[in-house]
Amino acid sequence: MIRGLSDATSIVRAVHTRETSARDVTSAALRALGAVEPRLRAFLCTFESEALRAADLVDARVAKGERPPLAGVPVAIKDNICLGPDLCARGDGLGYGGTTTAGSRILARYRSPFTATAAQRLIDAGAIVLGKTNLDEFGMGSSTEHSAFGVTRNPWDTDRVPGGSSGGSAAAVASGVCPIALGSDTGGSIRQPAAHCGVVGLKPTYGRVSRLGLIAYASSLDQVGPIASSVADAALCLQAIAGHDGGDATSAREPVPDYSARLEDKPQRLVVGVPGQARSGANSPELADAFEASLNLLRGLGAEIVSVDIPMLDHAIAAYYVLAPAEASSNLARYDGVRYGTRANLSPQEGLRDLYERSRSEGFGEEVKRRIMLGTYALAGGYYEQYYATATKVRRVLREAFGRALATCSMIATPATPGPAFRIGAKTADPLAMYLEDVYTVGVNLAGLPAVSVPMGCTSGPGKPLPLGLQLIGAPLQEASLLQAAAMFERARGPLTHRPEVTAI
């Protein structure tokens, strides 16, 4: 990136005043991408010529007196968010094209005929798409190791995972390639990689951002949101993508506030609830210390720290890993080599059943197969009431418990993860250990609440320093107050004392 213009807020200001051009910013971002990508493998495809053309169109808009809110800001898009061949509503023919793979062999050649609403809104706001980022296949994973197209590495330590499933987006932001990237969050897939990569990740309220054009994993849980270099950049991105969309029946109709307007203000009264589970003995010692230090920092800023009781939080992981695989089983049934997905090559002796079986067995990875089988089992006759129906009851009770807790406090604080980023390959042989990485995040999705992960420090033990994340959880549609509190914390904490090992800045 251009020195001094590493955040979206500065880029927008400089492009609006013509201190620099969107083309110059984009060229610098593409050079940065080329410098770090061989080590990180954060991107599945890049759009060099298309991005430069899009930048020229933004510069032309600015020259006419327009002030696009994200003018010239380089962004990355997670590759389960569709980009179509024509991305410009103004009729000038801008198109990025490319595949939308969801990290899966079964969609390796899929080209979307339309663009996701969230991506289109970014582009209309003047953002420049650099490329599509790597992810765990169909968003099913916590490490970006379950991609059909290779593993993404953490910029802080390339022997470690970046988190998942939006690991490519988090790595792109953390390495300085772009200040904003879109991710999706079904059980923590924005907040967990943001924490592991030392950046900000915001999971909006379910329905605040349109899901149109997001390839479905679990439709009642999925939500698009920003991963950003700062809270201010996350607010800018959310401003651009939030709002009702007639193409998404679950899209909220409530007006979208100005998320940046009062970001610098200190909340008049801030009561932060801490559930007992946040101090789990499973937390790494350094994370436990950083969490207590963060609570003390908030206390020093005038926040009142109180205990809250969310008893069903202990059952969130179990409920999630019934409900999400059940929805995945249903959503992924369409990928059969006939309606959707790559078709297996059959011998003359094979029939339709062979086509289904081989297309799905060859197209899906092991983790996706595991979750489809779990979900199919939970929905099967004789087990539906025992598993799926019970999990839906737990979800309802959990939502009510969060509501009672948030009636007594402004927001809830927990760690974003139980520890720092783990080594590549450390948990792939133990799915349960991998699933427990999301212990602090899945309950938020089950309850449909907004939450933000903000860096709270770094490890200082043997080895390379690794970032740790603080999660703040709010009431429905209260993203503005969450961002305000996160920004206050970010200012008081100051810059992290260490920087990523792989960085383009």
In spatial order, strands of the major sheet run 1-3-2-4-6-5-10-11-9-7-8
What is the number of E strands?
A: 11
The number of helical elements comes to 15
What's the rounded overall pLDDT mean?
95
Low-confidence stretches: none
Determine and state the CATH class of the domain at 8-241.
Alpha Beta
| Sheet with the most strands, sense and barrel status | 11 strands, mixed
Structural category: alpha/beta
Order of helices and strands: HHEHEHEHEHEEHEHEHHHHEHHEEH
Shape, principal axes of CA atoms: globular
Q: At CATH's second level, what is the architecture of the domain at 8-241?
A: Alpha-Beta Complex
Radius of gyration: 22 Å
Give the terminus-to-terminus CA distance. 6 Å
Describe it.
- This protein is of the alpha/beta class.
- The protein has a domain of 234 residues: Amidase signature (AS) enzymes (Alpha-Beta Complex).
- The protein is 37% helix and 12% strand.
- It is built from 15 helices and eleven strands.
- The chain has an eleven-stranded mixed beta sheet with strand order 1-3-2-4-6-5-10-11-9-7-8, sandwiched between helices.
- The longest helix has 23 residues.
- The protein is globular and about 65 Å long.
- The mean pLDDT is 95.
